[in-house]
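>> Question from a student workshop board

For tomorrow's exercise we were told to take the sequence and the ligand below, predict the bound structure, and bring the output to class. My setup keeps failing. Could a helper post the expected result so I can at least see what it should look like? The ligand is S-adenosylmethionine.
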Amino acid sequence: MGSDPETQRAPVLGRASERSGSLSEVRAETPNGHRELPLVRREASIVSPLRYPGGKRRLAGFVAEAIRLNSLQPCLFVEPFAGGASVALQLVKDRLVERIALGEKDPLVASFWKVVFQDSEWLVERVQNVKVDLATWDQFKQGSFTSTRDQALACLFLNRTSFSGILAATAGPIGGRQASSKYSIDCRFPVDTLVRRIREAAALADRVEFVANCDWRETLRRIAKRGMKRDEVFYYFDPPFYQKAHRLYSHFFSDRQHRALRDKVLSMPSPWLLSYDPCAPIIHLYSQNGCSPRRLELLYSTAPRATQAKAEELIVSNLAALPSATRLWRSAKEWQVGCQPVARGGRA
Ligand SMILES: C[S@@+](CC[C@H](N)C(=O)[O-])C[C@H]1O[C@@H](n2cnc3c(N)ncnc32)[C@H](O)[C@@H]1O
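>> Workshop helper replied:
Here is what the output should look like for this input. Compare the format with yours to find the bug.
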């Protein structure tokens, strides 16, 4: 931080010139004859205990590849909008970054990460013993917790038992209040899996610089005070969605706040990458000052064809090069025979 503004990176989006690392590539023929190049991890080596609306687990490979392409070796990877923190966890686990710093405005979410990294066995014990039913859900939903521990447990419980993992006040319990759905309230609360994921994240605790319950600007101020050199820090911004954010998060942005974030990131000399839901106002916001956003297609690989969920991610960055792959996940069909791996460095 504190670098000469003359040397700030121009917010351009380049094509990849090389590829390397633990990601594998496949060529795939699409129905319209286009050759696409999905960029995939063979397996996710760490999964966040939180199921997060707008969670970016599938983007971790892209961010990792972007760091490699630009020959960066950040000492510190900063996520000022941590949520489920899936990208930070993956990169620090893969040792692509030395340390991570997480900021998050929602006190429940911030407390969750604090307890995971500082007090994980308390949380494990509670996860193993909490009664997962509607009465407990009501207690957590109505509770105004002040202790970090209670906030952490409330976060995990409500995240795993509320519709789509949504913590916003309006979200109801999985299965509904009448429990008439085929889904039970505990269907996303697999105790052993959660315990494993908490412990896997907790094992990274000595590489966590800080977890802060604060606005994103405060996270940036904290980092600035450390006086690190420009390329020693990498920022990954994953702000609240532009569309429908009030239904997804307890804390979300007004148009003015989206603009304030844009103004700040475009002035930052350190490498950064930002992801958004692709929508016209955000494309417009970032299409000024010579900066052009880029769409990424995310395809979920496991769902049957008829119900296959498809999502797109908008990427903006000041990096000189971004991976040329625009698809981050293989479709179920591509996992089948006939999908030939290509040699490293091969082009679509
Ligand atoms: C899109 S989610 C992040 C998802 C995360 N990248 C993941 O992989 O799970 C955005 C997060 O920003 C948080 N947030 C909202 N307003 C904020 C603010 N002013 N400062 C910091 N965090 C904020 C929300 O609570 C939410 O957790």
